[in-house]
Amino acid sequence: MSDNYLRLVPYDPRWYPAQHAATAAVNAAHGLFPVAGHIAVEYEQGVTFFDAGANTESVHCPFCGSDIEEWWGDAMNQAAESRFEDLSVTTPCCHRPTSLNDLRYVWPAAFGVCALTVISPGVNSVSSEQLRTIEQAMGSPLKVIWQHL
After folding, report:
1. How far is Cα 144 from Cα 9, in angstroms, rounded to an integer?
2. Domain 1-56+107-149, what architecture?
3. Most CB within 10 Å of its CB: which of 2, 43, 52, 53?
């Protein structure tokens, strides 16, 4: 059996909400996704990669759009050695500095220490109004990650 997860991850990989904000965000999500199987803010021990699971298609340079998936695997292995404390990279195509968090992932992915997770949300998209409601409750801009496991 497979599951669909909606993960809302702060743009800043090291940011996490205060407890009252996390509770407010979960409450807002319950109102927006009433048929969801589970909703919670999940905290990780350190920076974690939230990927799209089976939805993942490719990784591209944020500057020129080149497919950099082959290089990306090595860059991820190197960053994992420091437990993703340093996400800085230089793109192999443009030789420009950026972050693993700022690469263009098809389907979106993100690094973070927490995520608002909605299991089986009962929808397959999030409107800008729904996202804004949760962002305001959580206190941070959020990346929308659709993970299929």
Report:
1. 7
2. 2-Layer Sandwich (3.30)
3. 52
